Fold this sequence. Notes:
Helix content of chain B: 40-55%
Largest sheet of chain B: none
Number of helices of chain B: 4
Radius of gyration of chain B: 13 Å
Largest interface: A-B, 20 and 18 residues
Shape of chain A: globular
Distance between the termini of chain B: 18 Å
CATH architecture of the largest domain in chain A: 3-Layer(aba) Sandwich
CATH class of chain B: Mainly Alpha
CATH class of the largest domain in chain A: Alpha Beta
Low-confidence stretches of chain B: none
Number of helices of chain A: 14
Structural class of chain A: alpha/beta
CATH superfamily of the largest domain in chain A: Malonyl-Coenzyme A Acyl Carrier Protein, domain 2
Mean pLDDT of chain B: 90
Strand order of the largest sheet of chain A: 8-7-2-1-10-11
Shape of chain B: globular
CATH architecture of chain B: Orthogonal Bundle
Strand content of chain B: under 5%
Mean pLDDT of chain A: 93
Helix content of chain A: 40-55%
Number of strands of chain A: 11
Number of domains of chain B: 1
Number of domains of chain A: 2
Oligomer: heterodimer
Distance between the termini of chain A: 17 Å
Low-confidence stretches of chain A: none
Order of helices and strands of chain A: EHHHHEHHEHEEHEHEEHEHEHEHH
Number of strands of chain B: 0
Amino acid sequence: MPELKRSKTAAIFPAFGCRYRGNEQEILNGLSGDLRDMLSRACKSVDINMHEFLSRAGGDFKDELQSQYAVYLYGCAVSNIVKRYGIHTDYAAGYSMGLYAALYHAESITFEQGLDLITAAAAAIRRATAGLEFGLGVISGLVRDDVRALIATHHDLEIININNRHSVLISGYLKHVREVLSRAKSEGALNATLLTFNSPYHSRFMNGAAREFRDCCAGVRIYDPLCRIISTVDQREISSAEGVLSDLVDNINHNINWLATMERMISTGTDVFIECGPGKSLRNIAKFIDGDFVVYHLNKINELFSSRGVCTSADAVNQ
Amino acid sequence: MANIEIGIRDEVRNVVYEFFSEECEVPRNELSNTTNVIKDLEGDSLMFLELLEIFKKKYKLNVELKTVGKYVVKHPAETIGAIIDMTMLIIEHENNIANLD
């Protein structure tokens, strides 16, 4: 008898800085009242600017923290809707600070805890980088060895994330990042752009912030995740509260590897990814990741709901 | 170097128009050779990379991305028409595109 192989589904969560389509509020409000409810709850919990959130539908937030709250809210709202439609997810993973929404999705933290953790991480990062000028850049079109050779001239520079086979992120002192981006263009990079963020996320400059953040996390009640979390730091499957705590802290000051994270899930048979958040950045990144899979983003969410390829919670229970 | 057959330009044009229409969710009849991919369609370099991969596979091209990148720095292609022209040059010259002025 041929072996029946059930395909797996993963929820993936973008970070702030992703490009919005501008119609996210319209789509989500058309599906449920989750976004409005969560915004209202968020306003009671943290210093989120409701007017700013509602008026910046295109995601052009002036303040980095507001931008982080917003992407978290969108991610959590999509997560609620996905669950309400009965779609079972085997894995969850968050791109950078998308981890907080992934943990909310896995019911490892509550919505409000996620907001508090984002606030605490931002404060710790701000203190760790005070008085220094850092930069983040994206380089596309060069192979990784070429980028490694480019950054080797400055010890402060690190590849902090590998997006896919064509695109990496670097960070370090702003003047060095600028210089390397300029050289990358001369070397033939199709894209070498300085990002608008000014903190060296996922780098060793965040060691102090990670220590401070660990202390904050100590007082947070974290639950075992209901679906496996895939660490973007080392791609391990996390199924315990202790593992979640460790990954939360590592996510602050360790390099991440989104390519390897996606590959890890694909290798287990995951062929449906649901991008839970604004825009379709993760879907675009995934185009340069090998495998037979599909990424549903918010604009295609109705196609997901009418798809027969995904497993519902009832299916999962019966297998 | 690929053998440029009659009709390849039409084929390239078709692929490029279809690609941007689908990617940017814009009806094909609203696109023209003067449509600016960055300003009008909010496109990005990853789209160009994807197109390049499509053509590399379709025509079995021997061309390195960074060779194209060096050419693009000197000859930016922002409109659909310019991207079609550049694609034709890449198909014709492959890695030798680096030697073009």
